[in-house]
Write the structure tokens for this entry.
Amino acid sequence: MHIEHISSAKNARIRELSDLMESSRSRREMGIFVTEGRKELQLCIQGGFEIESLFINQKIVDPLEFREIKCRSLFTITPELYSKIAYRESTEGVVATVKSRNPEIGDIKLSASPLIIVLESVEKPGNLGAVIRTADASGVDAVIVCDPLTDLYNPNIIRSSTGAIFTTQCIATTSEECYKWLRDNKIDILTTELEASHWHYNCDMTGPCAVILGSESDGLSSFWREKAGNRLKIPMKGSVDSLNVSVSAAIICFEALIQRAVKY
């Protein structure tokens, strides 16, 4: 494997890397995104993603450790340059550029009794990443992001999901297309609303179902509220009228996991 050394921030590869980290437009146009860290890289490869380039901090990592990884280019860079491109303060010495995927909703593989998370217009990448991490932990079949306000390969999503985005089925689509797909696959629609009819733990979630969660600022649109088969609410005793969307997702998904464990 040919290894090239880079020491200047003006290098074209470094400028391209910075653009990919900062701009969703660049990620979309180039079809490439950036991931950082050994664990994330391992999960990326496990998920079948194609690695384009590796950037290695020569003071932390021996490039030969990555000789088995298939990639187009491998670069060593100085610690000073690495500190400028690394997202995390506590770094593991490796950044990779990866070829994006744009799967369609029809590509989702379902279990016998699927559990789906649907997020409508969630705007905060950190929350979306946390929901994907919850999906991985609770055995959710897929996360569907409807009418997204951020691209799925935003570095904050990758970081907050701790790489789970690479091994969890994640799809971006419209609310209309998602609803049609849920209906065609006979998946019950459970909406989360403040003024709802059932406590979440009183709702049967052992069958095929999709939990629909709205944006942090506006909640669910009328489109999804009108499609609800069941409306759920989470008990709260405080004065704040809503939970963070990632916390709500975790509470409901682990309730579904418990119900399914008891049933099966």
Observations:
- The first strand starts at residue 3 and ends at 6.
- The chain has a mean pLDDT of 89.
- Residues 18 and 85 are 7 Å apart (CA to CA).
